[in-house]
Every structure is written in C-alpha cells, then in structure tokens.
Amino acid sequence: MNADQLPTQAPWPKRPGAWVGKLRQRIERAEPSETVLPAPIGVVTDSAAALPEAWVKEHAHYLRVVPMPVMIDTQIFSEGTDDVPTELALGLAMGKAVRTSRPAPGQMLRAYQDLAAAGCTQIISIHLSGALSGTVDAARLGAQQSPVPVTVIDSLTVALAEGFAVMDVVQAAATGASIEELTVMAQHAAKNHVYFAVPSLEQLRRGGRISAVASMLGTLLNVKPILSVCDGHIVATEKIRSHARTLARLVAIARAEAEARGPEARLAVHYFGNESAAEEIVHELAGASRTEVLSVPVPAVLGAHTGAGVLAVAISGGTPPPPPVDPKPTPKTAAVKPEPRSRSAPARREPRAKHGTADVADPESLSEPETPSPHS
Questions:
Q1: Which of 104, 219, 321, 326 lies 20 to 30 Å (CA to CA) from residue 262?
Q2: Cα–Cα dist 366/238, whole Å
Q3: What pTM does this model have?
Q4: Are 178 and 16 in contact (CB under 8 A)?
C-alpha cells in the first residue's frame, strides 16, 4: 500500500487503562469530516517521524511537522520541503560530507505559536530519540517561550515507530482526549519497534558509529547487520552474512513480531533508493496484520547514517514483545557463588573501546552518540 493511500483512521492498538476503550470508540465512530476540525490540543512532531504527506495535509488543522535540516558539504536542505532523498543519495555517492542537525528552537517556537493562533489551548510535542538527535532539547527550549503550555515527549525511537504514535495522538486529540491521555499514548512510542538492514558498514564507519577496523573486517566477512532502536539507541540485533539472507531475516523478524502483537499490529516498510525492493518486502509481509503494509521513504536522519540501500520495517500496535537482540542469551543456570580471587592474580579487565567507535562483535557498542557527528 502506497503511503498516499493511507486510510483516514489507522487501527487503534490496545492500551492499558479503562479510558482506552472510550477513546477507541470515539475515534471509530467519528466521521472522516470530524477528524479534520481544529482540536483544542495541538500536536507537533519532526520529519523523522516519516508521516505520509497526504495524511499530514489531511490533519493540518492541528498538526505541525518541523523539518529536520540536512547539510551536504556546505549546503543546507530541509527534510520534507526540499528533495532531500535525491540530494542525499547524490552526496553520499560522491563521498561528500553529510551532517544531520536538530531544528533550531525558534522553529519549534514558531510551530507552537502557529497552533496557539489556530485556537489550540495546549500542545503535545513528540520527537525522535534524544540519543539520536538534539531535536527534543530544541523542543524544550522552544516550549519555554510558547504562548500555551507544551508537553514535550522523547519517543525513544524514529521513523514510523515514532510516527505511528503521533498518528494515534493526533486522532485522539481530535476526539477530545485530555493531555494526560495523550501523554500516555505518546510514551507508548517506545514500545514500537523498527528494524533496518544495512547493505554496507562504510557509512556507519564514516559517521564514527563503528571503527575502521570493524568496518574492514565486516566487509571482508561480508557482514550485513540488522539494526534496531532499543531504549532510544541504535543497536545490532543480528549479524548475518550476505545481503539476501539479511533481507529474508528482516522479513522473518517483522512477521514474527507482528504475529506476537496480534491483529492490532501495524507495519510500514522504509526504503532509501530501492523502492522496488521495499515493495517486495511489503508483498512478503502482506497478511501479517489486518491492515495493509505501508511503503514510505526512510527519514534522512537514518539514511544519512546508514547509506543508500537501507531497508527498514516499523511495527506498532497490539501487545509488544521485547525486541530480539544479538548475541544469543546465555542459558539459564543455577546461582553459583563467585570463585575467590587470588591476591597475587588481580582480576583481568577487558579493554575498553574508544569513545565514538564500535566493534562488529559488540552489538551494544553500535549505539549512537548523543550529538550527531559529521560524515567524513
């Protein structure tokens, strides 16, 4: 299903609490025309949420999407307004320096002022993981000068894992949900998952996400990792050899999680320069949930760090299982008392990795730094 064909009302994932059923009934009973009226509580997010353009236009009365800036060499592009995917692909192919940055606090403030002028009495501002970008900090700074109260939420994720939560909040706000209810709903974004297959480790090396040695060894061994976002950080879920096997495993992981979440699950496939491959994954995931699978370009904040050819699957709704993380868990054993240390033989310490680098053998060390770094 193409992103522009997104239905007005996305299926509502189950949430804990008695108020959930009432909210779900209000949205499911609402006529399409009712969901585009100005809401007393406005919603602000960023372009990293990868919301379908047609859906954003339909809900523009009470929704503002702040574009993420992307710098290619010395030229700055705004995601969502300029042709960032094309410029980014060309820049990466030519080996140009690429940098992603947070929006200015003033941009956030203008979004808040715009919604206040439209009649919103409160605002909820939902943004990509603070560990991947300083956007949530910019939102907090802008909120300090907002003419109406602003609740800022760190979604701890990115892409439509963030976007699905934003869509839920927008629709709930249109039916009169309180700021407390919307806050709980927005925080549910952390339980959404996104998995992405990276065809090459080179771009991760350029961005300082892994070391040059790890990149070289990964290339020699033909390692094609599946990455995910866990607690706001990018981590390696699995390390597989050959791109074909990686894509097959990506589909298997997504299908298994969708089945575990139940019929309320929603899925979307992200791509960067390989839409045909994304459509194949959409076809393979068909039937994994009661809704059609969306196909949406990957947000620039991810594409700049992973490079062209990345494919990702975002999953939301239902009862979320914990994401699979490599390495394989250690078998459970009975509690064993630690052996006494010899005074003449101090405990050996493992060498610590240098800041800003990671080794392919250590999936947790693929976490993103707090501040985005330039690509050399």
A1: 326
A2: 12
A3: 0.75
A4: no
Tens-binned pLDDT, residue by residue, of the chain (376 aa) = 555 444 444 444 444 444 444 555 555 555 554 444 445 899 999 999 999 999 999 999 999 999 999 888 888 888 876 778 888 888 888 888 888 889 999 999 999 999 999 999 999 999 999 988 899 999 999 999 999 999 999 999 999 999 999 999 999 999 999 999 999 999 999 999 999 898 776 666 665 555 554 555 566 557 788 888 888 888 888 888 877 888 999 999 999 999 999 989 999 999 998 899 999 999 999 988 888 899 999 988 788 878 888 999 999 998 888 765 544 433 333 333 333 443 444 444 434 333 333 333 333 333 333 333 334 3
Q: Is residue 79 domain-resident?
A: no
**Residues 176 and 202 occupy one common structural domain:** no
For residue 113, being part of any structural domain is answered with: yes
Do 137 and 157 fall into the same domain? yes
Strand order in the sheet with 69-72: 75-78, 69-72, 98-100
180 & 197 share domain? no
Last residue of a domain, one of 174, 190, 206: 190
Q: Are residues 302 and 243 in the same domain?
A: yes
Alpha helical stretches, state H, the chain: 19-29, 53-58, 84-93, 105-117, 135-143, 160-174, 179-187, 202-206, 212-220, 243-261, 275-285, 300-306
Q: At what angle do helices 275-285 and 243-261 cross, to 10 degrees?
A: 40
Could you identify the residue written with the tokens 């101090």? Answer: 346
- d(CA 61, CA 37) in angstroms, rounded, equals 7
CA 333 to mean position of chain CA atoms: 36
In the chain, the number of structural domains is 2
Mark whether 254 and 158 lie in a shared domain: no
Q: Which domain holds residue 212?
A: 193-328+357-366
